[in-house]
Amino acid sequence: MAHFAKIDENNIVVEVLVIPDEQEHRGEEYLNELGLEGRWIQTSYNDNIRGMYAKLGAAYNPDLDIFEEIHTDVIENNSEGVNPGESN
User: Fold this and answer.
1) Cα separation of 5 and 76, whole Å?
2) Which residues have C-beta within 8 Å of that of residue 79, sequence separation ≥ 6?
3) Deepest in the core among 30, 54, 57, 70, taking most CB within 10 A?
4) Which among 15, 14, 8, 12 is positioned nearest to 74, based on CA atoms?
5) Contact at 8 Å (CB) between 84 and 70?
6) DSSP β-bridge partners for residue 75
7) What is the pLDDT of residues 39-83, one digit of tens each?
């Protein structure tokens, strides 16, 4: 089974789903066809890709192509328009 994380406009993980292995090569397209629209990024339950397994509330860093833990101070500062993984 393949795991995909849905990220919001701030690159925060809002959902993680499992899809059949035979759909892994087109995971985002497959999920969108099911009516689950959005940006879906593959993650690994075994931490084999993208640094860590994406969990709810984690951040996706598109520059490094990894998922990262996010701390509460980052969430509070995000009201200033700072994307996770960026400096002020």
Assistant:
1) 23
2) none
3) 54
4) 12
5) yes
6) none
7) 999 999 887 899 999 999 999 999 999 999 987 665 555 555 555
